[in-house]
Amino acid sequence: MKNLDSIAVRIQHLDLEIIKNWLIRQKGWSQSYADQMEMLYKRFLIMRIRFPDSNILSTTATEEMWNAHLRHTKKYVLDFTYIFSRDTDFSDEDFYKAQRLYKVV
């Protein structure tokens, strides 16, 4: 449980400003709506980690936030590396190789 608590804290500390700003520009979200969706997205991620066997559904807005996060692939990888405390020292070549592999799958 302690490990799950530390993961939840790291999720809460994610800086998603670039994602929110993208959604404000691309989807017309207001700043306050983006802030609310950030909170819900982080809660959603924590629930997915805490209850991995549950079929937790996201809201449409949470899904949009998640998809926007995924669109910013390098940030997404760095954020989830941070969440799970893995070594974040990877090269751009490693990143592009992973990106190509994701397209194959």
Care to give the gist of this entry?
It is built from six helices and no strands. With 105 residues, it is mostly helical.
Structure, explained:
By secondary structure, this protein is an all-alpha fold. It is built from six helices and no strands. The longest helix is centred in the middle third of the chain and has 20 residues, at 31-50. The N and C termini lie far apart (33 Å). The model has no long low-confidence stretch (mean pLDDT 84).
Could you name the key traits of this structure?
105 residues, mainly alpha, 74% helix, 0% strand, globular
The rounded distance between the terminal residues' Cα atoms is: 33 Å
Whole-number total of structural domains: 1
Low-confidence stretches: none
According to DSSP, the number of beta strands is 0
Structural class: mainly alpha
Main β sheet profile: none
Task: Please compute the radius of gyration using only Cα atoms.
Answer: 15 Å
Number of helices: 6
User: What fraction, in percent, of the residue positions are helical?
Assistant: over 70%
Q: What is the N-to-C succession of helices and strands?
A: HHHHHH
Task: Based on Cα principal axes, name the global outline.
Answer: globular
Which whole number gives the mean pLDDT? Answer: 84
Q: Estimate what percentage of residues fall within beta strands.
A: under 5%
Task: Map the helices and strands.
Layout: H1 2-12, H2 17-27, H3 31-50, H4 60-71, H5 73-83, H6 92-104
